[in-house]
Batch of 2 targets.
Target 1
Amino acid sequence: MRRRADPPGARAADDLQQPTFIRRLERRDVPRLVRLLATSQPWLRLGYGTADWRRLLGGPLADRDAWVIAEVGRARGIAIVRRTFLAGGYLELLAIEEAARGSGLGARLLEHCENAVLACAPNFFVCVSDFNDGARRFYEGHGYVQVGRLDDLLIPGSAELLLRKTTGPRRDAPSTAGSAPRMSAPRGRGASSRRSTARLR
Ligand SMILES: CC(C)(COP(=O)(O)OP(=O)(O)OC[C@H]1O[C@@H](n2cnc3c(N)ncnc32)[C@H](O)[C@@H]1OP(=O)(O)O)[C@@H](O)C(=O)NCCC(=O)NCCS
């Protein structure tokens, strides 16, 4: 899981020198983070257990970036970001150790992920369970807006709310001057409007 060719022990020494430090997930973090996640809401209620977390964190994280926030060398939170999702990225997992919640670590980790994604694409998405009031407040406070509701996605009777933070549309509006195609006035549904659509392709 170590992505850079650091000499053995170098990253651990960095962690100890800086009180709070965001770095990539490493193999040594996995047991502690599996414990954190396997004993934490909302995932207990959603039915995720130790085996699920071992499988996720222990295997290769294709097309994803995994970050931890560490204090004095210990991982106290994790974020996993899927790099491509719609016109942006998707925050697949964000969790802070229970004893450290409410002290700003979640905000730091979220901002780190946002900066990485929004530097290259205009959207960052996350799903939050409808019953997870604390996390809903947290994301709202960071400028996320609900753009969808996925009923019964993970467990019956509960919805995942799709939230979005955006810096704007991916493309500028096409110029209307010069070569823009001419549209005929709409004449109702059916064959004639299908022909208009075809002309625009
Ligand atoms: C949501 C979470 C990542 C926020 O990280 P954090 O370090 O606790 O948050 P911060 O200290 O940066 O910000 C505090 C804000 O987070 C929210 N919050 C959510 N759960 C909280 C908790 N257990 N304790 C304190 N704040 C919490 C509150 O809105 C709080 O703001 P407020 O004090 O004005 O109400 C973290 O609480 C957590 O891991 N929760 C459980 C897992 C989870 O729900 N993850 C998100 C799944 S989509």
Target 2
Amino acid sequence: MAFAIFVLQLVIYILLFPLYLLNFLGLWNRICKKWFPVFLSKFTVTYNQQMASKKRELFGNLQEFAGPSGTLSLLELGCGTGANFKFYPPECRVTCMDPNPNFEKYLVKSIAENRHLHYERFVVGVGEDMRQVADGSMDAVVCTLVLCSVKSQEQILREVRRVLRPGGAFYFMEHVAAEQSTWNYFWQQVLDPTWHLVFDGCSLTRESWKALEQAGFSKLRLQHLQAPLSWVLEIPGSFGIHILLQTHTVLPRPQHLAQNLAPPQHSSPSRGGTCPSTQWNLSTQAFTRP
Ligand SMILES: C[S@@+](CC[C@H](N)C(=O)[O-])C[C@H]1O[C@@H](n2cnc3c(N)ncnc32)[C@H](O)[C@@H]1O
């Protein structure tokens, strides 16, 4: 299997030789930082359409975390083009952070299209170092399709806990490694090096649930599911793969959690089968203690 992965990776290297050459010459990173926002602004339209029900489910209870004034202060980490803005509740105060300044022009457009929000500011920086955001200043932090690209998930989650107020919530939706010994995992491994280069550091094979389980949230609710995306990459003669294989979400908060947050729960996610309904496995939630 390892040999087959190596050979297929070699074929991709050869086919994409100009790209690897640009990278070797140190030119690709600058191009990628400009290209990626353009790509994402187009990709987001389709992605948001197909993931709309999941995003509505994910963000449906955001307003419950608003402070005493009724206003929700939210930090969107790795905000990209502002793809999640339309799912936020009215009057939500949004602070955006992203290391790539080229996203700002797309953010401005999203802000103009989402007048129900109060846009606070755009911070250029990485989630591993959010010193520009004060301790305990946020009711909610949102992170979608970001943990796949970061240097240190552990450090980011430490920073998320720092900026969240006691009782605040962290919302995430990430694509992760498929179950090992599946064809999906095989293709993830084949594509990963090139994917990483083309999509600005994104990795297909990260097991992000492990860092989330160890981050020390007082409650973690995490699900594995097959993303309801229709675009399938057909590999001639054999099978198709869904590139976005599994997604973690925080579920709407059950009523009993409104009063109390139990001691930390860390469960290992068992991985689901092929039917989406059997892939909703688990169980815990991401909140800081009130
Ligand atoms: C695939 S895009 C997702 C954008 C947006 N969250 C969405 O769901 O459409 C990944 C984003 O994470 C950002 N990013 C990469 N590394 C990061 C880091 N260390 N800290 C914060 N954001 C990061 C990228 O610049 C990019 O905007």
